[in-house]
Amino acid sequence: EVHLVESGGGVVRPGGSLRLSCVASGFTFDDYGMAWVRQGPGKGLEWVCGIHGDGDATAYADSVRGRFTISRDNAKNSLYMQMNSLTAEDTALYYCAKSTGRSCTYYGVDVWGPGTTVTVSS
Amino acid sequence: DIQMTQSPSSLSASVGDRVTITCRASQNINNYLNWYHQTPGKVPDLLIYAASTVQSGVSSGFSGSGSGTDFTLTISSLQPEHFGTYYCQQTYSTPLTFGGGTKVEI
């Protein structure tokens, strides 16, 4: 069975940093693009960033470009997101999500982790 | 960036009703349009990809149509398990973007 499990969320002060991780199982990890999607309290879905299956291509939402960095370690079936210069607007539930194809573009996401909560507050 | 606009933002319907949700892209996205359904406290489920292809395991009551900039999601006969929020998403170009959501109440 396909599983994604996120970790690394928590409470951080404005301007601080966090690193989220996601461990995948049940599928050939490097065959699929991966993404981080977030959902603020009571808000809709926001695509944050994505990475191709081979890790050679990445893309970011305007709201996080230059502050967040997505990466993956295919040998460890793991996805990461380094989050720097956090603001209150980054407070959200962060989902790790599997693309239905090798690219992180063109395809939807068919598997989601349960999410990890990031709270940015002083 | 491509903006996705859903309408209505919310609707109330009865069991058995036919429900249609629309999604408009700010520019041509061909058929790179997906639909998701989310109930409170749950992760989203992929319903339809490529505008009209029903994801494996999704009930046959869902259908999608459209191409270019205008898309629709139709629920042929609304069931209690269909309540929740529906989101469209374009995957034509990065940054990928979601619509604001349509909350369906029964």
List keywords for this structure.
heterodimer; A: 122 residues; mainly beta; seven-stranded mixed beta sheet; four-stranded antiparallel beta sheet; 11 strands; globular; B: 106 residues; 0% helix
Provide a brief overview of the structure.
The complex is a heterodimer of chains A (122) and B (106). Chain A is built from no helices and eleven strands. The relative contact order of chain A is 0.32.
Protein model, in words:
With 122 residues, chain A is mostly beta strands. Chain A contains no helices and eleven strands. In chain A, the strands form two sheets. In chain A, strands 2, 4, 5, 6, 9, 10 and 11 form a seven-stranded mixed β-sheet that branches. In chain A, strand 5 and strand 6 form a beta hairpin. The radius of gyration of chain A is 13 Å and the shape is globular. The mean pLDDT of chain A is 96. In chain B, strands 2, 4, 5, 6, 9, 10 and 11 form a seven-stranded mixed β-sheet that branches. A four-stranded antiparallel β-sheet of chain B has the order 1-3-8-7, with no helix packed on it. Chain B contains no helices and eleven strands. Helix content of chain B is 0%, strand content 49%. The interface between A and B is medium-sized, with 23 and 24 residues.
Secondary structure elements and their pairing?
The complex is a heterodimer of chains A (about 120) and B (about 110).
Chain A lengths: L2 E5 L2 E3 L5 E8 L8 E6 L5 E7 L6 E3 L7 E6 L4 E6 L8 E8 L9 E4 L3 E5 L2
Chain B lengths: L3 E4 L2 E3 L6 E7 L7 E6 L6 E5 L3 E2 L7 E6 L2 E6 L8 E7 L6 E2 L3 E4 L1
Parallel strand pairs in B: 2-11
Antiparallel strand pairs in B: 1-3, 3-8, 4-5, 4-9, 5-6, 7-8, 9-10, 9-11
- Chain pair sharing the greatest interface: A-B, 23 and 24 residues
Q: Any idea what the radius of gyration of chain B is?
A: 13 Å
Estimate the helix proportion of chain B, in percent: under 10%
Mean pLDDT of chain B, as a whole number?
96
Unreliable spans of chain A are: none
